[in-house]
Amino acid sequence: xxxxxxxxxxxxxxxxxxxxxxxxxxxxxxxxxxxxxxxxxxxxxxxxxxxxxxxxxxxxxxxxxxxxxxxxxxxxxxxxxxxxxxxxxxxxxxxxxxxxxxxxxxxxxxxxxxxxxxxxxxxxxxxxxxxxxxxxxxxxxxxxxxxxxxxxxxxxxxxxxxxxxxxxxxxxxxxxxxxxxxxxxxxxxxxxxxxxxxxxxxxxxxxxxxxxxxxxxxxxxxxxxxxxxxxxxxxxxxxxxxxxxxxxxxxxxxxxxxxxxxxxxxxxxxxxxxxxxxxxxxxxxxxxxxxxxxxxxxxxxxxxxxxxxxxxxxxxxxxxxxxxxxxxxxxxxxxxxxxxxxxxxxxxxxxxxxxxxxxxxxxxxxxxxxxxxxxxxxxxxxxxxxxxxxxxxxxxxxxxxxxxxxxxxxxxxxxxxxxxxx
Length: 422
What we know:
It is a single chain. By secondary structure, the protein is an alpha/beta fold. The protein has three domains: 5-189, Aconitase, domain 3 (2-Layer Sandwich), CATH 3.30.499; 193-293, no CATH class; 297-414, 2-Layer Sandwich (Aconitase, domain 3), CATH 3.30.499. The chain contains 16 helices and 14 strands. It has helices at residues 5-11, 17-33, 53-73, 106-120, 150-160, 169-178, 207-221, 237-250, 268-272, 284-294, 315-325, 340-349, 351-357, 368-371, 386-396, 405-414; strands spanning 38-40, 44-46, 88-90, 124-125, 146-147, 180-182, 196-204, 226-232, 279-282, 305-308, 333-338, 361-364, 380-383, 399-402. The chain is globular, with a radius of gyration of 22 Å.
């Protein structure tokens, strides 16, 4: 790997042993990937404060320095952790202390609080959300970044036009201390051109339909780069968030193009860089197949738990949930997952009061899939998130229903699933 003078200095210890270990990790990582050099990054999104049994053991052995050294730097030595070299944010983590009644280990709440204090003093911004772009972390088009979290990565690449691969705990930790990441994959322009043309032959307008379409596309192309055309309404932030998260769940998509919407695809031809392949159609039969697949994980109509906000809810989604709940009361447990910063806005705007008066809750920082926690006794849950319908049954061993936000709120109020594909 070709290193600059600055990078060689970091590797050789000019900025201390932790930075040297970080650069050594990145060089080994880059060589394994066949990268010829490193990219300079000024935006890292990782999970340094996410509590876990492994971190608890390491912290007990040697404090947070020990945990960071082993997990984020792949080092057998316990190294002092210096301030982050570049702006770094913490993605979603465990539930906070205000999530009373959630069956989540109290010791993890304490561990997380301790981690936030440790890393906050070293320059990590505790955004605690899988949607950092909703709360101020907005890289610009063409900027190289190092992000984790599949739904955040696909949004950064596709909607914002930033450049990142789906990184891991170790690579983001090392990037935070060096401002570098191996330059491969999505960092290269030639690897960002479309590979498949997918045409919607029926209208895709609603939030649910953007999720169904995304789930179809991800399953179809897996880790490739689809260009999406057809009867597509102009999407908003929430639609694009849902589309990308669904596509990254059924497949491994890190980048899609919507000609005329996403920044690197002013036209279909530009998205492909030339020759346009034959399109694969998405029609009523494909829509029905995807819907049935997302709803084939159980048959009980009784719903114990309703989950909204995956990826974390936007303020518009919170407002919509409040509108649907006003004057009603839930029978099933209702959680709306949101960034803590947006929950504060929802509190001030009166949406939280309406939701809580109905018996629902807005919870910040995490989600049931990350924290492996749902209301006790949950056998069946309902969600408007294709991503959660895909993952949570396997993670928690429960049944799932997928539908519209209105259908999910109705299930929360009645305790029964009455959704259908129209």
